[in-house]
């Protein structure tokens, strides 16, 4: 009996709530019934609120897993854009299903394996992709127009202290209304900071003492939440639209553990001149709001003055090699009563066991890393030699001439063998057996020759990298040990991607691609990793 499955998707929670997913499923079930097939519940794969431009969807992942295991014979999908809105992704998935011997049925499109059918499918995918781009642009411009005419519907979720009143049936616009219970808390926050001049941590303590919960019902208030409330101009009667914009995914400084779904975009702050202010009911007056901003600025200055004593040169670069969480800087007191700084491994979430990787003394680690950086800047050849030793293999570069001779010999042998067969000196069976072996050996030699040629190109690029590092070093005006803390950190971040700390050693991953020639971004240039002994803790 054939195993039948269905796949359905909607791209937003709003669509899911409207029931469009149910209508898809109903149509698919009706078609399955018409085809006299039987659908089991375990073979229903649904993605509610997942974009069609992203391949990472739980329902789709489970479907692909089942297909990979050979458990499915036929998949019913409403239309190609439900599978993916990107033509490339559609082709990837359909090819994957075809290789597994799975038949795909679209309700609004009849598929076969002809070139014309494939072309039409790709054209439909391209049109769907175009329509989505146009829809997103219309949506963006529509929100921009609504914001300029003062509509609060573009703001999204109402801030703490407000509730959003939806657009009425009589046609009046949606609006923000003050939630008096929450607004009372907001006024107290502004009074505490603007009049009593207390810090954020003290605000959190007072909220905890009074058992005041967050907007989501949590007992614990975060500093970032308090800071966002105190900085938000909505409370002085000015809601802001356009504070951020969507852009390309930001590169991660270090590998992320348990990152979940891969992000398809990142948010970027916009300049204030691009902000659009929308009038809303105010909770605090402008004078108190400005007083709070002054106090927050004073608090930041005070923290910076305190943090000058505790600065971590490698902050943001250190990561635990065991659990992949970041190593964070912390100050502690030893038995002699003097401060020393340590990088210690971030503990796992409270529901998991801690990693157990020991702290490493900051001064010792920073000294070792800075010494390595100075050595590379002064003699970059050492770094390149280390790369050659691990990646290239000097002996292989000497084999090219020998390979060319063997390649020429094999080509002559193949030519002679063909001539012998043509003259009738050998029979067909012997000819096919010998020619197959010789062609295989020739292919291996050609592949090996290409691999060595690629490595020679890498070797040439490494020479350029040495020059680029020397040029960077020549641009540093002061002696390396005369650089201040910020300048040292800037140099370190230019050369080092991350520092991986293990139980008994440390691995430095260098940013070699930073120095690759701009117009020759060779993908074969791999990261250079150097392992060193871990400094002993006091």
From TrEMBL:
Q: Which residues form the Recombinase domain?
A: 159-302
The terms under GO molecular function for this entry are: DNA binding; DNA strand exchange activity
Coiled coil located at which positions?
Answer: 11-38, 428-465
GO BP annotations, alphabetical order: DNA integration
Q: Which InterPro entries match?
A: DNA_bind_recomb_sf, DNA_bind_recombinase_dom, Recombinase_CS, Resolv_N, Resolvase-like_N_sf, SSR_resolvase, Zn_ribbon_recom_dom
Please name the CDD domains in this protein's record: Ser_Recombinase
Instruction: Report keywords, A-Z.
Output: Coiled coil, DNA integration, DNA recombination, DNA-binding
Entry's SMART domains?
A: Resolvase
Q: Which residues form the Resolvase/invertase-type recombinase catalytic domain?
A: 3-150
Protein name as catalogued: Recombinase
Which organism does this sequence originate in? Trichonephila clavata (Joro spider)
**What lineage does the source organism belong to?**
Eukaryota, Metazoa, Ecdysozoa, Arthropoda, Chelicerata
